[in-house]
Amino acid sequence: MKKILSLVIALAMVVACCACFSGSAKAEGKLVGVSMPTQDLQRWNQDGANMEAQLIEAGYEVELLYAANDIPTQVSQIETMIADGCEVLVIASIDGDSLGTVLAQAKEAGIPVIAYDRLIMNSDAVTYYATFDNWLVGVKQGEFIRDALDLDNAGDKTFNIEFITGDPGDNNINFFFDGAMSILTPYLESGVLTCPSGQTEKAVVATANWATDAAQARFENILSSYYADGTQLDAVLCSNDSTSLGVQNALKANYTGEWPVLTGQDCDVLSTISMLEGTQSMSVFKDTRTLAAQVVTMVTAILEGTEPEINDTETYDNGTGIIPSYLCEPVACTPDMIQELLVDSGYYTAAELGLE
Length: 356
Ligand code: BGC
Fold this sequence. Notes:
Elements: H1 2-25, E1 31-36, H2 42-57, E2 61-66, H3 71-83, E3 88-91, H4 100-108, E4 113-116, E5 126-132, H5 134-148, E6 159-164, H6 172-190, E7 193-194, H7 202-205, H8 212-227, E8 235-238, H9 241-254, E9 261-262, H10 269-277, E10 283-285, H11 288-303, E11 325-328, E12 331-333, H12 338-344
Parallel strand pairs: 1-2, 1-3, 3-4, 4-5, 5-11, 6-7, 6-8, 8-9
Antiparallel strand pairs: 10-12
This protein binds beta-D-glucopyranose.
Beta-D-glucopyranose (BGC) binds next to loops.
């Protein structure tokens, strides 16, 4: 009996070992380059860490580099990845329009390129795009403001709103901002919403590098120019958490009216804490683990010569044609959802959010 048991255990170990070996054997020794824009914002650290961990788990070797929000640095890091023999490049660009030359080198070397989260523009070297449904992100922010202010039942009431979005070189802002505006524009047109600063154009409300201090500086100006007389600010459409934090900083020091409805995106730790404290009304949760997992399956399909899973072949034209895309689903997160969405799912520990 004992003998049979040891035999069964030994056999099980051999099977497990073989399964393990064959899982990684296809990937073994293959180098994947992962180029991330910056470590300044929390999400890219998470994206980089998730990508690295999941690629290694699948058996790949990884060259992960962060470009400090500096375009020439990103270009030279990608050149290094090509020279080092990366077989696939996964790139979250700083400026979608600045990688044409280096990606032409990648194409020349036969290296497929996956645009990660942000579409790389005007390059025919981009093979696939994996992101979240960026239009839906904006729609969810716009819908939140609409519902929080109950704009459909405003009657004679009017509300004041201001706008802030991200870096003009990031193609995503076209989707975030236009998606939100698709919901809010009718209310601006009917006069239920008014923008006292008059700053409603995307180019005017953009924020270089999505930087919190730039967002703060612009809002300090807006507050001193248009709200210092006691005008009530009812809502700020903030395209993401880093810009939302800048607005919150400006409001804390320069505004005494009723706190406005504020949107965000990413569920960064600081913004999640702001939601718990009541200074940010919502954020849009984009689970970076899901995006990383999707990209790892894309990498595997490409390297195995099969078709990766795609769920959008219409939306993302990078100037050279439509890039086949996989869009993950964003989720609107309000303070009451934090425990389930972010803590119970293991995205953050309760301690990270100051909950224990
Ligand atoms: C991403 C957002 C992020 C922003 C700033 C965008 O491209 O989609 O999730 O907040 O960049 O890093």
